[in-house]
Amino acid sequence: MHNHQLLKGTIDSRYGDIFSTIKKDERFDVVIFNPPYLPTLRHERIGGSGWFDLATDGGVDGLAVTKRFIEGVHKVLSKNGRAYFVFSTLANRDRFTTYLTEAKLKSEIVSSRRFDDELIDVYQIYF
Fold this sequence. Notes:
Layout: E1 28-33, H1 51-56, H2 64-72, E2 77-88, H3 93-102, E3 106-115, E4 118-126
Parallel strand pairs: 1-2
Antiparallel strand pairs: 2-4, 3-4
């Protein structure tokens, strides 16, 4: 690890359904979220072991899981906390913006990268 000597504090990694592993009064300065973000119709699902669908299937508008995250992130972010996650331009950006507005969250794109027919944006959201 190249930056090991620069790390301060602790990093806690948890596995669960969005906020299911968070204790009631826990708050975080940084939350990183990698949702399934591709718009997916039922007939487009691959099936089988299900891992690919879990990793990519964002529902019809690509925002099914992201919406749940946006609606609940205020419960886990500290006052000056930041959350980071990916958004695909294949998803519905107008609906995404509406979700952020309804949750009273501010946002900015901190990184973008083009992959074939989509642009992947990394968003930072905060209060």
